Amino acid sequence: MNTVPLILYVVAGVAYAVQFTRRSLSASRVASTLLILAAFAHTFIIGMETMRAGHVPFASTTSAISTFVWLLALSYLYIELTTAERSMGVFILPLLVALQAIPAARPMLEARSPLLESPWFGVHVSSLLFAYASFALACMLGVTYVLQFKEIKAKHLGFFYARLPSLNVLDEMNLRAVKIGWLFLTVGLITGAIWGSQIQPSGDPRMQSMSLGDPKIFVAVVCWALYSFEIYAQRAIGWRGRRAAWLSAVGFGIVLLNFVPVSYFFTTSHNF
Amino acid sequence: MQLLLVGVSHRTAPVELRERLDFSARGVDRALVALAGAPAHHEAAIVSTCNRVELYVACDDAAPAQVAVHHFLSDFHGIPGDQLAPHLYAKVGPDAAQHLFRVAAGLDSLVMGEPQVLGQVKDAFSLASQLGCTGPLLNKLFHSAFTTGKRVRSETTLSAGAVSVSYAAVALAKKIFGNLKGRTVLVLGAGEMGKLTAIHMKSQGIGRLIITSRTAAHAAALAQTIEGTAMPWESLSESLAEADILITATGSTVPIVSRTMIEQIMKAGRQRPLFIIDIAVPRDVEASAGDLEQVFLYNIDDLQAVVQENLSKRGTEASQAETIVVEEVDRFIGWLNSRGAVPTVVALRQRFEGIRQAEMRRLEPKLAGLPPEARARVDEITRLIVEKLLINPTEQLKAISDADTVAAYSDALNRLFGLTAEDASEESTLTGRR
Predict the structure, then answer these.
(1) CA nearest B268: which of B289, B232, B242, B234?
(2) Nearest CA in chain A to B270
(3) Domain final residue pick, B140, B160, B180
(4) Which residues in chain B have their CB less than 8 angstroms from residue A167's CB?
C-alpha cells in the first residue's frame, strides 16, 4: 500500500530536480502538483490504516516511519505554499523517498500491545515525529546554507548561488525549525518519561530496561542536548549562520540514525 | 505596404551625433505627426533613447520613402544630409522587423540584455498610437516585438546577473541579508565609487547610511547629497560595530581596516554577518579579514570578476534569444504575407458585388411590378448567394502564409475573374518579399 505514495514521491523528486537545475516554471508547477498528489495518496493510506487499527499508525517502527514521511511531506508543502520557495524540494524529496522505501518494503504490523494504549504514549510518539520532521527541514536548510555560504566565501557565485534564497532567510528558517523541533522533542521526552514511570510496575520485561542505558533513549537525550546548545549558542556566543547550519545538519544525522538503524537493530526495549 | 526602418544607434554613430538626433529634446509628438503626415508614409513610430534613434515607417514603396525619411531627419534636426548619411542604416521588411525584435529583446543594447529598452520601445509605440500615427502594420509589428521581449525575458536568462560593479555589490548584499530594509551601511571615504554604490544600496531601502571620511567636511558634503549621516573618523570602530555592510573607497595607500578591528566587532556576541565591499585601490581592508567567520569580503577585482562572469553568461544566452527572435520574425512575416492576399480578396469581393449590382440594375424594369418587400427579398437573396460563394475562397486566401503562393493564387484569380491591374500591383508590395 505504501508503494503508491513512494512512486509518486520518486516522480515528484525527479520533477523537483528538473525544476532546480533548469529553473523552469512549468517543471516547478508539475513538481508541486505531484508532491501534493503524493501527500494526498499518503494521507489516504494513513487514514485507512487508522480506521483499520483504530488508532494512528505509529506503534511499530515501520508504521512510524511512514507517518513521519507523511508529516515531513506536509510540513514541507506548508513551507513551500506559504513562502513560494521551491528550491528546498530537491533536498527534501530524496529523504522522503529513502524513508518511504522502508514501509513500502516491509508490512506495517500495527498490532498494538495493551501497554501502548495510554494517551501518554500517543502524545510521546506524535511529538517526537513532529520534532523529527522539523529537524529534517532544519537539516536541509543547514545543508543549503553551507553550500551557498561556500560559494559566496570562495567568491565563486555559481550553481547554488543562482538558485537558493538568501543566507539570512536560510539561517532564520533553520533556527525557527530547530526551535519548533526542540519544543516537540522536549515534550516527547517528558511524556515518554511520565509514561514509562507509569507502566514500570506492570512487569513487562521490556519496561525493565527502559532507562538512559537504552541506546534509543540515550541518543535522543544527546540530540536534545545538541539542539539546546544550538539555540543557546546563537544567542549567547553569536553562533549563527554556518555553525548553526552545521549543528542542524549533524543533529538530524543523529536523529535519523536513532530513528532507523537503532530502532531496528540495537535497542533492547524501545522497539514496539 | 512595406515596412521601412531608418536609424542610428551606438553601433553606427558617436554620442555627439546621437545627441543632436535625440527627438525628446525637440518633441517626439511633433516629429511623429510630421513624419506620418508625409505623403509617402502611411504609419510611423519613433524609438528615441540615448543609445538609438530609429524611425519605423509603413509605406507603399521603400526607396522613395527612405529618401523622404533622410530628408526629414536632416531638416528636423538641422543636420546636413551628407554629414548624417554615413551613420544611418536602413532596413526593409523582414530585416526591419528582425532589428526591432532584437532591440526589444535587449540584444542590440550597449549592455547586452539590459531590461529598460523594452519599456522604452513600449513608450515609443504608445505615444505613436495615441497620436494616431500607427495602423495595422505597425500595431502588429510592435506587439510582436513586445512578445519577443517578454519571451526572451521569461525563457532565457539573458537579463540575469548584475553587469556593473555597484549592482553586483547590491546583488551580493541581497544574497547575504535577504532584504536590505533596516540594514546599516557604512561608507568609508567620500569618493565617486563609494557614493555610487551607496546610492544603489539606498534605493534598496536600507535603514541607515553612515558616512565617514578623514576630512570631515567631505563626509558632511556627501552625507548631505545622498541623505546619510556623517560620523567623525575617530568613532570608526563604533560605526563599524553598527554596520551590516561596509563600503570602503578611500585614497589611502595603507590598509585602514585591519583584521583585528573586524575581529573585535565580530566577537562581541554579534549575530549579524558583515559584508565588506572594498572598492579602493590600493585596498583599504586587510585581506585576511575575509577569513573570519560570518565576514564576507569582496574587493574591486572580485566584483569585476563577478561582472565578467555574468557578461559571459549573457553571451551564451544570446544565441537562445536570437532563436526566439527568428521564430517571432517568421511568425510576423507569415502574418504579413497572409495580409498580402487582402487586396485580392477586396478586389474579388468588389468584382462579385459589382456584377450583382449590375444585374440588379438590369432587372430593375422587370422587378418594378413587385411589391417593395419582395424586391428587398430579391436583393437580400442575391447578396447572400454572393456572400456564400466568397466565404471559402476568402478564408483560404487569408490562410496562406507564404508569399509566392499568395502571388500565384492572386495571379490566377486576377486572370480568372479579370480583376483590375492596380489591385495586383498593390498586392505585391504589401507582401514585402524577401
Answers:
(1) B242
(2) A238
(3) B160
(4) 175-178, 273
DSSP run (H or E) holding B284: none
Taking CA–CA distances from A241, the nearest residue in chain B reads B294
Indicate whether B34 and B147 sit together in one domain.
Answer: yes
Domain that holds residue B32: 2-160
| B174/A167 Cβ within 8 A | no
Instruction: Classify residue B301: in a domain, yes or no.
Output: yes
Together in a domain, B123 and B185: no
Do residues B156 and B170 both lie within one domain? no
CA triple B263-B269-B274, angle to 5 deg = 50
Beta strands in B115-199 (DSSP E): 184-188
How far, CA to CA in Å, does B273 sit from each of A25, A115, A239, A270?
Answer: 32, 51, 11, 43
- Among B176, B288, B295, the strongest candidate for a mutation testing the A interface, having the largest count of A CBs within 10 A, is B176
Q: Same domain, yes or no, for B365 and B275?
A: no
The CATH number for B102's domain is 3.30.460.30
Cis peptide preceding A114, ω within 30 of 0: no
Q: What is the largest CA-CA distance in chain B?
A: 114
Nearest-CA distance from A231 to chain B in Å?
Answer: 12
Q: Which of B178, B298, B309 sits opposite A168 (nearest CB)?
A: B178
What pLDDT, on the 0 to 100 scale, is given for residue B163? 79
B424 pLDDT exceeds 50? no
**Which of A103-112, B107-116, B217-226 is least confident?**
A103-112
Domain count, chain B: 3
Q: Do B175 and A167 touch (CB under 8 A)?
A: yes
- pLDDT tens sequence for chain A (272 residues): 778 889 999 999 999 999 888 877 788 889 999 999 999 999 998 888 888 877 777 777 788 888 889 999 998 998 888 887 888 888 889 988 988 888 888 766 655 566 666 778 888 888 888 899 899 999 999 999 999 999 998 888 878 888 888 999 899 889 989 999 999 999 999 988 888 777 766 555 555 556 666 778 888 889 999 999 999 888 888 788 888 999 999 999 998 888 777 766 665 556 54
3-state secondary structure of B194: helix
For B310, name the nearest residue in chain A, comparing CA atoms only.
A157
